[in-house]
């Protein structure tokens, strides 16, 4: 098996990303990336490589831990299907309007940002909660779903890394402790303060939420959203249109939405505590998320039937249609996970890390570690995988050169968050598309300019910090 291919090891991920963006055929791009990676692993035995790639797809699909991912992905689609098609979300949106919580676009965007920040226990739950709650409000006010996807994606991972009272914190704490750091917890706390990308991305998202600023491809979709809402308002002015009166709010339907979403959020830390034998940071994240979302789905089904007397047949169709609508993204997630496993086997991350072995000015190291971690995360689509590769490089480097260990840790963590935020094959990028109900490539294309801007600012900050060492 070939595991030291140098720059060739980057081809499967980079070609998959390029092909997906150019052709918009994400599934075929990822599938080709998986097969190419395995062909490279077993060159010159092409047939063996193709068989290995096919086998790896099956193994990823039936892996018990991954089945929880497929389960909660389809369940969240079913949940939104029930809330939307069952009719409860209509009353939720009207209640928000009546209470003047989101009377305008600015308040709606800030509402999304705050939700993303508050729900910091688990990134996917943060995305799902703020995305599914905000989607009908954005449609109503004429804000593009692409901007919604950007806002939820720009709060989830940055907040989870900045408030590490979760599995993210436990994972990185373990990596830092294994490198011989005397006080891992204090070191991680200092690194959080210096995590420039997470801070910049979060503040940039706040600025966009406050001002509505759009640039790049986002401008097109914002214009389209304004046109759609204008056409809808014109349609509603025509006589004979059947719609719920503005003040008609079913309190039971409103309670169904609120209870199901609050349950989904609160049940995650409870399940983490239970599965971690009294410790949230040691809890089983995927199990906790799966239980929380399935419980929320059950509440939504029962609440929809009781409050609106929606026929069981309609609710059942809503469950199936919601899950079916999400299925393509579940397939993308499956292929992205398989490709990530293959790129790790190829040694893509290790090759990128070796680039730092060349002689470099000391003050440039924080910025270069950030850029290398960002490139690694973008290529493999995994922030945690990047942390596992980069922290064992950054910490000994800092110790051997007598540099501030928290600063180099922060640079590695920042780069991982950039890739998690921007990569088309990252699970959080995919789930943000899912939660906002937007085409995945449209989300990637509209979000990337903002992510790159944050990365440029972050590079400057790390370079400045390096000069001050």
From TrEMBL:
Record localization: Cell membrane
Keyword Transport attached: no
Top-level lineage group: Bacteria
Transmembrane segments: 6-22, 29-48, 68-90, 110-129, 188-213, 253-274, 286-306, 318-340, 360-381, 393-418, 448-468
Alphabetical list of InterPro entries matching this protein: Na/H_Antiport_NhaC-like_C
A matching Pfam family: Na_H_antiporter
Key words of the record: Cell membrane, Membrane, Transmembrane, Transmembrane helix
Membrane topology reported for the UniProt record: Multi-pass membrane protein
GO cellular component, one term: plasma membrane
UniProt entry tagged with the keyword Chaperone: no
Residue ranges constituting the Na+/H+ antiporter NhaC-like C-terminal domain according to the UniProt record: 159-467
PANTHER family cross-referenced by the UniProt entry: NA+/H+ ANTIPORTER-RELATED (PTHR43478), NA+_H+ ANTIPORTER NHAC-LIKE C-TERMINAL DOMAIN-CONTAINING PROTEIN (PTHR43478:SF1)
The protein's name: Sodium:proton antiporter
């Amino acid at each position: 098996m070939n595991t030291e291919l140098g720059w060739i090891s980057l081809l499967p991920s980079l070609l998959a990303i390029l092909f997906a963006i150019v052709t918009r055929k994400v599934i075929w791009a990822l599938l080709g990336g998986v097969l190419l990676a395995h062909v490279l692993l077993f060159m010159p035995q092409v047939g063996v490589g193709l068989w290995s790639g096919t086998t790896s797809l099956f193994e990823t699909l039936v892996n018990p831990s991954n089945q929880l991912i497929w389960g909660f992905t389809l369940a969240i689609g079913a949940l939104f299907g029930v809330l939307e098609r069952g009719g409860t979300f209509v009353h939720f949106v009207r209640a928000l309007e009546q209470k003047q919580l989101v009377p305008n676009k600015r308040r709606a965007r800030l509402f999304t940002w705050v939700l993303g920040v508050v729900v910091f226990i688990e990134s996917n739950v943060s995305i799902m909660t703020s995305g599914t709650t905000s989607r009908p409000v954005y449609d109503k006010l004429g804000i593009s779903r692409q901007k919604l996807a950007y806002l939820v994606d720009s709060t989830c991972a940055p907040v989870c890394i900045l408030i590490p009272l979760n599995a993210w914190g436990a994972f990185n704490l373990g990596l830092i402790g294994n490198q011989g750091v005397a006080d891992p917890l204090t070191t991680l706390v200092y690194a959080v303060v210096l995590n420039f990308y997470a801070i910049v991305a979060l503040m940039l998202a706040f600025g966009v939420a406050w001002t509505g600023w759009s640039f790049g491809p986002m401008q097109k979709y914002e214009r389209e959203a304004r046109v759609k809402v204008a056409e809808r308002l014109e349609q509603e002015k025509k006589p004979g249109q059947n719609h719920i009166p503005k003040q008609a709010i079913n309190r039971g339907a409103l309670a169904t939405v609120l209870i199901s979403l609050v349950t989904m959020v609160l049940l995650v830390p409870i399940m983490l505590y239970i599965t971690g034998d009294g410790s949230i940071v040691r809890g089983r994240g995927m199990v906790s998320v799966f239980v929380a979302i399935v419980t929320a789905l059950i509440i939504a089904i029962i609440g929809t039937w009781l409050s609106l007397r929606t026929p069981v047949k309609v609710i059942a169709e809503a469950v199936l249609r919601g899950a079916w609508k999400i299925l393509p993204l579940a397939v993308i997630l499956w292929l992205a996970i398989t490709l990530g496993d293959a790129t790790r086997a190829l040694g893509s991350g290790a090759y990128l890390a070796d680039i730092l072995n060349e002689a470099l000015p000391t003050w440039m190291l924080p910025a270069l570690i950030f850029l290398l971690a960002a490139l690694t995360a973008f290529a493999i689509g995994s922030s945690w995988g990047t942390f596992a590769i980069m922290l064992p490089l950054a910490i000994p480097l800092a110790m051997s050169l007598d540099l501030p260990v928290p600063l180099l840790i922060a640079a590695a963590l920042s780069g991982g968050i950039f890739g998690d935020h921007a990569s088309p094959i990252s699970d959080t990028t995919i789930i943000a598309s899912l939660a906002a109900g937007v085409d995945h490539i449209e989300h990637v294309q509209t979000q990337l300019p903002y992510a790159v801007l944050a990365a440029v600012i972050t590079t400057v900050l790390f370079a400045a910090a390096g000069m001050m060492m």
